[in-house]
Amino acid sequence: MRQPLIAGNWKMNGSKSSAEALLNGVVAGSGGLSKTEVAVCVPFPYLHLGEQLLAGSSVRLGAQNLCTESGGAFTGEVSGSMLADFGCRYVICGHSERREYYGENEASIAQKLTRATESGLTPILCVGETLQQREAGEMEPVIAAQIDGVVERIGIEAFAGIEIAYEPVWAIGTGKTATPEQAQAVHAYIRGRIAALNGSIAEKLRILYGGSMKPGNAAELLAQPDIDGGLIGGASLSADDFLAICLAGEQLAA
Ligand code: 13P
């Protein structure tokens, strides 16, 4: 049984004071969780706050991006070792917003995955199709290309230290969630694709679902056999909503 991981992706939201309140709220409400792993991926400026406020709790800290390079003259970038220095465990790589607005592709995402693992971080690799691609029947080839393009560059063994998040682009921030059956089908497809290369890595691989996961739909999504957690955007900005999703994971893991 894979331990569920519920990770919040705050995206570019919050202020010093709201971040502090949210971190404190998540810590206060997650004390009783023992079967579900909880993480919050905060904006860079709040990493220090996260490191301080999560200390002594079981809530893990994460970031939302890192540089393709390990250090040096790359103005405005943040390295994996800097994230590790602030106590990060996780870093999101290849989120669809970064693919769409910042031109990330399999080549740069593969570099980021390597930089992350070199720094002792666990990357959360995001994949997912647009509505247009789904309607054109291209969902599987799109997901396959997103996975294969990375596997070709970093090797299947690297997936022993990576989490995958399936995030259908049409479900992100739209309130339109994939049905549990739709999500399960893609999760099974992803696991099968990895299994064709390495069965034991595929068996242990956690595949999170992301896209309008909320307290009201989390339990039925998390109950699917190949859904091992959630990557939560909007609902992670409310401690109560985020903790309700964590509790759904905890109850299913029980
Ligand atoms: P929402 O939960 O707001 O749809 O965002 C999902 C997401 O993009 C998490 O990375």
Give a short overview.
The protein has 254 residues and is of the alpha/beta class.
Question: How is this structure best described in words?
Answer:
β1, α1 (16-30) and β2 form a beta-alpha-beta unit. Strands 7-6-5-4-3-2-1-8 form an eight-stranded parallel β-sheet. The chain has a single domain (5-69, 77-253), classed as TIM Barrel (Alpha-Beta Barrel), CATH 3.20.20.70. α1 (16-30) packs parallel to α2, α1 (16-30) runs parallel beside α11 (239-253) and α7 (139-154) runs parallel beside α8. The protein has helices at 16-30, 47-54, 80-85, 96-102, 106-118, 131-135, 139-154, 180-195, 199-204, 215-222, 239-253; strands spanning 5-9, 37-41, 60-63, 88-93, 122-127, 163-166, 207-209, 229-232. By secondary structure, the protein is of the alpha/beta class. It starts with a strand and ends with a helix. The mean pLDDT is 97. It is globular and about 45 Å long. The protein binds 1,3-dihydroxyacetonephosphate. Residues 9, 95, 167, 172-173, 210-213, 231-235 line the site of 1,3-dihydroxyacetonephosphate.
